[in-house]
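WARN retry 2 of 3 for item q-0093 after timeout on previous attempt; input resubmitted unchanged.
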Amino acid sequence: MQKIINMKKFFKGWYFKCQSNKYTLALIPSYHKIKNKEYFFLQIITDKSSFYIKLSESKEYYFGYDGILINFISENISVKGSLSFGPLSTIKFDIMGPFACIPFMECKHSVYSMKHTVNGFLSINGEEFIFNNDIGYIEGDQGYSFPKEYAWTHCFFKDGSLMLSVADIPLKIYNFTGVICVIHWQGKEYRLASYLGAKVTKINDGEIIIKQNDFILKVKLLEKNHRLLSAPANGIMNRKIKESIICKASYHLQKNNKTLFSFISNRASFEYEYHN
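OK item q-0093 returned
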């Protein structure tokens, strides 16, 4: 893991999602710096459970854009195995756009791969997760806190991969609802973002509607299947959020009133941390 930025409270986390026809899981390693003390954590979430592990800075694990290697055993959990990742499908430029240059933002997002192959296996408390030319997604966050209210979703679909995040963004002068979204579909990249003029027209009851020029994106969480994860608040992992690593959601993208795609997936990932 890379240790960066000289701040009193800072975190950097990576999100490795791996999905096959049978399994969906995410491994979330993170680095934290609090008053010159350093901590390493790993969270694992599956459709059935979630785990929280405090790691030591040792050779018991490796997390990279080419794969994962881990051999961790404690009284409560055993995680062993290795995964290798195929060529990454990167995005054209930083998902944060010009906001990436703003210092001391509460949280900055990164997208490292929209879709790549996954091969290998992991054994988690004796349960084996086997991947054979399956698919993966990698993103990350860094800063000192997750947004107070936000929604996030990722979904693989036919010829595509979609990521959307909507969040309350506090700046010194004012707060606003920020949007970042990238879609790889049929060999093209589509991007909706606040810095491109995207506006949130609805966030309510698990439904999000985004409008940007001639584009309208509609996303809705239809059935939850959430597990608890820990998230940073002022650098400390003491906030609980709910993630459905695999759930039912709908996605609809249109341009100039013409539908580009519209589908319902039973294999979407979703976090909805708005209180409405």
